[in-house]
Amino acid sequence: EVQLLESGGGLVQPGGSLRLSCAASGFSFSKFCMNWVRQAPGKGLEWVSSISESGSDTYYAESVKGRFIVSRENSENTLSLQMNSLRAEDTAIYYCAKVAVEVARGGVDYWGQGTLVTVS
Amino acid sequence: EVVLTQSPEFQSVTPQEKVTITCRASQYIVGSLHWYQQKPDQPPKLLIKYASQSFSGVPSRFSGSGSGTHFTLTINGLEAEDAATYYCHQSSILPYTFGQGTKLEIK
């Protein structure tokens, strides 16, 4: 059974930093790209970032480019999102998500329960 | 970026009714279009991947079709548990994007 468990959310002041983690299990983590997707309170879904299977290629939404860094540690089945220079508009639930198809970069099938980040 | 426009944004429907939700893309995205269902306080769940491929464990009343710029999600024989918000999502062109959502209310 695929499981994704996010952690690291919390309350942070504008301009501050936070590091999210996602522990993955139940599948061959190193064979799949991973995504981060967020959802502001009462709003729709927003793609944030993608990372390739090896971690060598990363992609970001314009809204977070230059402030967020995605990384992964395949030996530990862990995905991370380092968030710097946080703004009020970054307040959201952040979901870790597994890409559905090997060799694909996006299009996710399994989602974690999410971790709430509040910038205030 | 690719803008995905869903219609309708809200629909009130009765059980057993057939529901069709459309998703139009502002650019050609081949078949890299996926559909998700989200209930309050839950993460989204994948229903359909790559326009028409049903995801494992999803009831057969959910189906998807389309290609290029026009896609549809159909629910044949709506059930009360289908009350939720539905999103389309494209993974063809970066940055990946989602539709604004369609909220289904069960009468």
Give me some keywords for this one.
heterodimer; A: mainly beta; four-stranded antiparallel sheet; 11 strands; 0% helix; globular; B: 107 residues; mainly beta; seven-stranded mixed sheet; 50% strand
Q: What does this entry look like structurally?
A:
The complex is a heterodimer of chains A (120) and B (107). With 120 residues, chain A is mainly β. Chain A contains no helices and eleven strands. In chain A, strands 2, 4, 5, 6, 9, 10 and 11 form a seven-stranded mixed beta sheet that branches. In chain A, strands 1-3-8-7 form a four-stranded antiparallel beta sheet, with no helix packed on it. In chain A, strand 9 (92-99) and strand 10 form a beta hairpin. Chain A is globular. Chain B has 107 residues and is mostly beta strands. The radius of gyration of chain B is 13 Å and the shape is globular. In chain B, 0% of the residues lie in helices and 50% in strands. Chains A and B meet through strand 5 and strand 10 of A and strand 4, strand 5 and strand 10 of B.
Question: How are the SSEs placed, and which strands pair?
Answer:
The complex is a heterodimer of chains A (120) and B (107).
Chain A: E1 3-7, E2 10-12, E3 18-25, E4 34-39, E5 45-51, E6 58-60, E7 68-73, E8 78-83, E9 92-99, E10 108-111, E11 115-119
Parallel strand pairs in A: 2-11
Antiparallel strand pairs in A: 1-3, 3-8, 4-5, 4-9, 5-6, 7-8, 9-10, 9-11
Chain B: E1 4-7, E2 10-13, E3 19-25, E4 33-38, E5 45-49, E6 53-54, E7 62-67, E8 70-75, E9 84-90, E10 97-98, E11 102-106
Parallel strand pairs in B: 2-11
Antiparallel strand pairs in B: 1-3, 3-8, 4-5, 4-9, 5-6, 7-8, 9-10, 9-11
